[in-house]
């Protein structure tokens, strides 16, 4: 039987999940069910019923470095190799759709999920994601880049409205997705939880149809984030394909009723059903099942891949007097809890049950040419004061048996997690106290920094050397050891700017938004676009990274299709650097950051070798989006091309005449502080000029609706709702304090709006029952409870009718 011959009910049933991870198939039409699973840096194939937060057990799989770490490699080919391994493991673990990579722009360093995202720049994020997607899909497994789009904070993530001007939306927050879609042709994409200018992403026709499908040519399925769908009917109309995890038959009933009422075109239902059928056929796997595990040979091979990726992603941030690599015969004192108990991934839905684990204490002890003079813990992992630990570390450092001190410091598991934004850019004070004590010994001090996001480094000027290793995956310890001892020459470059202090961030004063509206007041001045334009000093500029080698760029030339230059390794040691191309618009042109990344190339060179490097222009090089004409344009005139190893140090420049389709048009003086990039000084009137309209942020709600998070019930007049919210808030804080891990389940509930209940309960709760729950939240406890009970029995009966029809009884 063909898909077209199925009933409306059968087609509608294809558009929502059957369980936490499975789609619904249809045997009559030969459409198999397919399995979806996290995640972006390792397969999280759960056992049993499963959950979407990484709480339940899952099959062992390779934990690769996180996206925020891999991006530091600036090497899409390396990302593709990692993707090939990911896709192979997904296939062998009976997963059809792998939910990743995460591609959201890093708007602020405190976002709890930044470790899962690539960069503050869409060019780097887009090309790295395209590499990973190609690798995954080479195995017949679908990648599913996420979260589309403008998802920048974890607080209220399921009930937040991202308010953003159209030009910033298109140029900064969507361009990375565009590059990935055009370059890698993903078979699926995941919509985000949030609204965008008042419309939920999964039912946003401008986002899903006008831009994604019509402009970019996306032909795949749009899958909701888990519980991220609001209206099934609106989603199908807008271009949303599949609701996950499972709303039971509630959405089926709504879709069929809309078709019968004439408010949903049968053609839209058919189109969405065909997208599910296509994804099921593209990812159909044979010969694997739920009980399969990875083979020993595959585990060993992919552990090596994980190490290679980690090696290419480690960033050398400082190396005074060439302390690194360690000299032969060096006696090294190793300090730090994370050297013994490695932290190599973040918390949340991406957390992988790693096939193997390493720690730096063991791996450094195995390296030839150096000696470990000892190990000391140095600090309590979660920040408790324990002065004797510092004293023991200082004693080891001052020992006659120690030549150099190696301290491993960073953020703990509860600091970087899905569902929870960081409260500070500082590392725990006990670690800062340790570093200060160790540097006072006078011994050379090398710091290994374990964080998925930037942190403040008040002691940076006083240490001898520093490696940023990110969250480096299960083979990260051996990769770090190989870099420290010189077996690997570090070649990573930072994929985001590191400010000196949090208050230097452009949006520090309004991030995260605590109310419904997250207003992107800073416009396009995100990351280096702000720091370079407003001339704000930073700790490390975007693209920064040192090497054990030194490189020279020369002979920059530009022609109609791109640039060329010569790169020379001026040292004896083979190594790699990243050539970065930035462009500056013509004088008198539209509002822009001072310069923007438009191309890059990682170049490997033997000692004293020179290579000619070319970077071609593409559709993204000179364009800007004009909201008035709702089209992309290129300004004619003299542009400046700038080349260097980071966004701040660009020694090569050349003027370049561009023949565009419009003449330069000066920005309106009403933009005020935006004209200099000093967005902290922007007034409400200037913001209205950028947005094209005024923006009013509402206060606390006095009446709660289906889209207000459970956490907001703490202000409810209703005793029952207020008690529920406050109890959950206290519970999460208590568990986090006790275990050192965030309570993801409670965080999810607190961020969840009531509407998600009918999307996450496999049909036990429908929309009318959600309305009843909201009545309780608004203080009408008994009336709401009565409505809920009546709705329960109505919903149960209706679900039985749909099940009977689908089973053809």
From TrEMBL:
The keyword Hydrolase applies. Keywords: Hydrolase. It comes from the Bacteria. InterPro entries: Cellulose_deg_GH3 (IPR050288), Fn3-like (IPR026891), GH (IPR017853), Glyco_hydro_3_C (IPR002772), Glyco_hydro_3_C_sf (IPR036881), Glyco_hydro_3_N (IPR001764), Glyco_hydro_3_N_sf (IPR036962), Ig-like_fold (IPR013783). Pfam families: Fn3-like (PF14310), Glyco_hydro_3 (PF00933), Glyco_hydro_3_C (PF01915). Residues 577-647 form the Fibronectin type III-like domain. GO terms for molecular function: hydrolase activity, hydrolyzing O-glycosyl compounds. GO terms for biological process: carbohydrate metabolic process. The keyword Nuclease does not apply. Belongs to the glycosyl hydrolase 3 family. This is Glycosyl hydrolase. It comes from Bifidobacterium aemilianum.
């Amino acid at each position: 039987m063909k898909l077209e011959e199925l009933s409306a009910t059968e087609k509608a049933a294809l558009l929502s999940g059957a369980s936490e991870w499975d789609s619904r198939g249809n045997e009559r039409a030969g459409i198999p069910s397919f399995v979806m699973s996290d995640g972006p840096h390792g397969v999280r194939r759960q056992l049993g019923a499963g959950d979407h937060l990484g709480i339940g057990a899952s099959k062992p799989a390779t934990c690769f470095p996180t996206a925020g770490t891999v991006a530091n490699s600036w090497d899409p080919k390396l990302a593709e190799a990692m993707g090939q391994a990911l896709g192979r493991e997904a296939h062998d673990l009976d997963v059809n759709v792998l939910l990743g990579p995460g591609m959201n722009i890093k708007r602020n360093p405190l976002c709890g999920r930044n470790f899962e995202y690539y960069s503050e720049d869409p060019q780097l994020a887009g090309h790295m994601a395209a590499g990973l997607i190609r690798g995954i899909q080479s195995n017949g497994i679908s990648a599913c880049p996420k979260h589309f789009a403008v998802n920048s904070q974890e607080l209220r993530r399921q009930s937040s409205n991202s308010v953003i001007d159209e030009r910033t939306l298109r140029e900064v927050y969507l361009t990375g997705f565009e590059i990935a879609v055009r370059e890698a042709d993903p078979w699926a994409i995941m919509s985000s939880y949030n609204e965008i200018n008042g419309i939920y992403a999964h039912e946003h026709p401008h986002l899903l149809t006008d831009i994604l499908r019509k402009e970019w040519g996306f032909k795949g399925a749009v899958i909701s984030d888990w519980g991220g769908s609001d209206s099934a009917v609106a989603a199908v109309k807008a271009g949303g394909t599949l609701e996950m995890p499972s709303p039971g038959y509630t959405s089926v009933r709504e879709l069929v009723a809309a078709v019968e009422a004439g408010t949903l075109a049968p053609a839209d239902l058919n189109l969405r059903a065909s997208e599910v059928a296509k994804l099921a056929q593209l990812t159909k796997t044979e010969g694997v099942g739920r009980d399969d595990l990875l083979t020993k040979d595959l585990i060993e091979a992919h552990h090596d891949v994980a190490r290679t990726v980690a090696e290419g992603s480690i960033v050398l941030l400082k190396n005074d007097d060439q302390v690194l690599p360690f000299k032969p015969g060096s006696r090294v004192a190793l300090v730090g809890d994370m050297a013994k108990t490695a932290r190599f991934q973040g918390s949340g839905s991406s957390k992988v049950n790693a096939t193997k684990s390493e720690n730096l204490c063991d791996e450094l002890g195995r390296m030839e040419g150096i000696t470990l003079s000892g190990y000391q813990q140095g600090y309590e992992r979660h920040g408790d004061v324990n002065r004797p630990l510092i004293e023991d570390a200082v004693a080891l450092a001052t020992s006659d048996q120690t030549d150099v001190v190696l301290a491993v410091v960073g953020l703990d598991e509860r600091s970087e997690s899905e569902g929870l934004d960081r409260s500070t850019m500082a590392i725990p004070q006990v670690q800062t106290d340790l570093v200060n004590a160790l540097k006072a010994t006078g011994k050379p001090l090398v710091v290994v920094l374990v964080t998925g996001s930037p942190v403040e480094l008040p002691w940076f000027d006083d240490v001898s050397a520093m490696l940023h290793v990110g969250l480096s995956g299960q083979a990260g310890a051996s990769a770090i050891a190989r870099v420290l001892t010189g077996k690997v020459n570090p070649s990573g470059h930072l994929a985001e700017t590191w400010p000196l202090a949090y208050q230097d961030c452009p949006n520090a004063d309004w991030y995260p938004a605590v109310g419904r509206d997250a207003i992107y007041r800073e416009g396009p001045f995100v990351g280096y676009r702000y720091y370079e334009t407003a001339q704000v000093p930073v700790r490390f500029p975007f693209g920064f990274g040192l090497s054990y080698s030194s490189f020279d760029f020369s002979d920059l030339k530009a022609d109609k299709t791109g640039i060329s230059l010569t790169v020379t390794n001026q040292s004896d040691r083979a190594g790699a650097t990243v050539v970065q191309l930035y462009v500056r618009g013509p004088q008198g042109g539209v509002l822009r950051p001072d310069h923007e990344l438009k191309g890059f190339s990682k170049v490997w060179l033997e000692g004293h070798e020179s290579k000619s490097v070319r970077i071609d222009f593409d559709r993204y090089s000179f364009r800007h989006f004009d909201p008035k004409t709702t089209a992309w344009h290129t300004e004619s005139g003299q542009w400046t091309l700038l080349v260097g190893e980071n966004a701040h140090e660009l020694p090569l420049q050349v003027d370049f005449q561009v023949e565009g389709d419009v003449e330069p048009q000066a920005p309106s003086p009403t933009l005020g502080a935006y004209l200099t990039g000093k967005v902290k000084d922007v007034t409400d009137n200037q913001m209205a000029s950028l947005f094209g309209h005024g923006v009013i942020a509402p206060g606390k709600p006095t009446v709660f609706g289906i889209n207000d998070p459970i956490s907001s019930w703490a202000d409810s007049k209703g005793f029952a709702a207020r008690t529920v919210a406050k109890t959950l808030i206290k519970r999460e804080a208590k568990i986090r304090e006790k275990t050192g891990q965030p309570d993801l389940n409670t965080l999810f509930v607190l961020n969840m709006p009531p509407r998600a209940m009918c999307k996450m309960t496999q049909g036990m709760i429908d929309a009318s029952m959600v309305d009843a729950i909201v009545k309780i939240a608004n203080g009408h406890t008994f009336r709401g409870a009565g409505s809920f009970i009546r709705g329960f029995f109505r919903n149960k009966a209706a679900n039985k009718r749909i099940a009977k029809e689908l089973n053809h009884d």
